[in-house]
């Protein structure tokens, strides 16, 4: 149905980078991507993660909406900054912006636990 891939860098233990979020086409439009992110970070905040980092191309409106919605549900700030220019990639590629969401506070998690 769907998955989230990411990692925590040892040098930045209070942040988790979300590399990819995917939902099967037949399941899209049901809020599954947001539920997957919420479930993942519901656990990660208990381990000390306070920030979600991800990169998104400026034309990926669905991903932008997904992470804006995540920030709103968690009552967290979303900061967006340029990270990679198109010229930084060896092949034709859109630029990528860094999205940082946080702080993610256990008391403000959507699950209420």
Low-confidence stretches: none
Write the CATH fold name.
Aminopeptidase
Termini Cα gap:
25 Å
Q: By helix and strand content, what is the structural category?
A: alpha+beta
What spatial form do the alpha-carbon principal axes imply? Answer: globular
Tell me what you see in this structure.
This protein is α+β, with helices and mostly antiparallel strands and 113 residues long. It has a single domain, classed as Gcn5-related N-acetyltransferase (GNAT) (Aminopeptidase, 3-Layer(aba) Sandwich). The protein is 23% helix and 32% strand. It contains 2 helices and 5 strands, in the order ββαβαββ. The chain has a 5-stranded mixed beta sheet with strand order 1-2-3-5-4, covered by helices on one side. It is globular, with a radius of gyration of 14 Å. The two termini are 25 Å apart. The mean pLDDT is 93.
Quick synopsis:
With 113 residues, this protein is an alpha+beta fold. The chain is built from 2 helices and 5 strands. The protein has one domain: 3-Layer(aba) Sandwich (Aminopeptidase), CATH 3.40.630.
